[in-house]
Amino acid sequence: MALLTIKQAAERSGIHERTLRRWCDTGHLKTTKLLDADAIRIWLIDSNDLDRIKRPPHISQIRKEEKRRKMTAKTSIS
């Protein structure tokens, strides 16, 4: 188990740093949170978790699915 900073995880995985931060914020990626002496938040990501991560669906895929569900609900009510 190696702990990686966001920057190290981004370099290793090819996933943008902002994306990793968003996944940490939303809980999609587990992290260990630390504060350094200057009260700067540092997230450490377990390399095993990074290796197992699956990318969440792109927002356009989510919207298409929501639209399909709404259309299905409307036709079933009629």
Q: What does the secondary structure layout of this molecule look like, with pairings?
A:
Layout: E1 3-5, H1 6-13, H2 17-26, E2 32-35, E3 41-46, H3 47-52, H4 59-77
Antiparallel strand pairs: 1-3, 2-3
Q: Name the structural class.
A: alpha+beta
C-alpha geometry: elongated
Tally of helical runs = 4
Mean pLDDT across the residues is 81
**Poorly predicted spans:** none
| Strand arrangement in the largest pleated sheet | 1-3-2
Question: Count the strands?
Answer: 3
Q: From the alpha-carbon coordinates, what is the Rg to the nearest angstrom?
A: 18 Å
Strand content: 15-25%
Share of helix among residues?
55-70%
Distance from first to last alpha carbon: 55 Å
Please describe the biggest sheet, giving its number of strands, its sense, and whether it closes into a barrel.
3 strands, antiparallel
- Reading the helices and strands in chain order gives EHHEEHH
Summarize it.
The protein is an alpha+beta fold and 78 residues long. It contains four helices and three strands, in the order E-H-H-E-E-H-H.
Features:
17% strand, single chain, alpha+beta, 78 residues, 3-stranded antiparallel β-sheet, elongated
Q: In words, what does this structure look like?
A:
Strands 1-3-2 form a three-stranded antiparallel β-sheet. The model has no long low-confidence stretch (mean pLDDT 81). The protein is built from four helices and three strands; from the N terminus they run E-H-H-E-E-H-H. The termini are far apart. It is of the alpha+beta class and 78 residues long. The radius of gyration is 18 Å and the shape is elongated.
